[in-house]
Amino acid sequence: MNEVTKQLMEHVSIRKFNNQDIPEEDISTILDAAMRGATGGNMMSYSIIKIQSKDTLKKLAISCDNQPFIVDANLALLFVVDNYKWHRLFQLDGIPEAFPAYNGPIINDMILGMQDAMIAAQNAVIAAESLGIGTCYIGDIMERYEYHKELFCLPEYTMPATMVVMGYYDKKPKRRPRFDRRFVVFDESYKKFDDDFIYDMFSDYLEEDPDFVKKFYKRKMDAEFFVEMHRSLLLYLEQWMGPAR
Ligand SMILES: Cc1cc2nc3c(=O)[nH]c(=O)nc-3n(C[C@H](O)[C@H](O)[C@H](O)COP(=O)(O)O)c2cc1C
How do residues 146-201 score in pLDDT, each as one tens digit? Predict the structure, then answer.
């Protein structure tokens, strides 16, 4: 393993930050690394909103399903799927007139933008970790459609893909477990497996607590935040759901 792969193997999400500031030079490096990521068609169909205001972080700690540690972050980067800029260019250049089938960005554009945004976010995470800065993704930024749209002045054909909060930390938590590779990596085609394979995959969790599955479902899928995320995502996605051309 080289230094880069060693660092990747040491990844852990950090949820307890100290109050040390991230130097501007490091923020700049993290943003450059994010923007160096591969991007569909080299279109960079995303925007990054840099958040350093404590006031905004306080608001996000509440609006992102009440996660108080967000306030203690020194920096948050909001990665936004952004088809607005290209759409506006198309409008300005007369694409709707020249190509009447064009009726605004469609689901292809949104998914590619989502992929771009997540690649940029992960590059930012890797760059931050290489500089000794802790990170945590905040998926709950996809909730509270009306509130976040207004808070960040999001135009049409944009939506939050993810947010990464960053800061220095005093103690690094232990690495969290992953499934064994045989449950995740299949050779050449999807593996044919039976139900024992599924039980085997989750055996560590089930041995620790036979009620693990129901408890997990209740905590995640049956929770209020999940209902709210669904409501918000449907509102965001509506914009891209035009008919096939
Ligand atoms: C898409 C995505 C959304 C996440 N959202 C949250 C979140 O809202 N709050 C949080 O504390 N952690 C969040 N996480 C971090 C995961 O909980 C974490 O990666 C997982 O538990 C594995 O732990 P590790 O990153 O320390 O290995 C998110 C991670 C991803 C990839």
Answer: 999 999 999 999 999 999 999 999 999 999 999 999 999 999 999 999 999 999 99
Q: List the end-to-end C-alpha distance of the chain, in Å, as a whole number.
A: 48
- C-alpha 172, offset from chain centre: 22
The whole-angstrom distance between residue 75's C-alpha and the CA centroid of its chain comes to 15
- Number of helices (H), then strands (E), belonging to the chain: the values are 11, 4
135-144 pLDDT per residue, tens: 999 999 999 9
- CA-118 nearest atom, ligand 1: 1
Give CATH for domain 3-176.
3.40.109.10
Number of the ligand 1 atom closest to the C-alpha atom of 12: 26
| Extents of the domains making up the chain | 3-176
Q: Distance, CA 144 to ligand 1 centroid (Å)? A: 19
- Rounded Cα distance between 191 and 197, Å, is 10
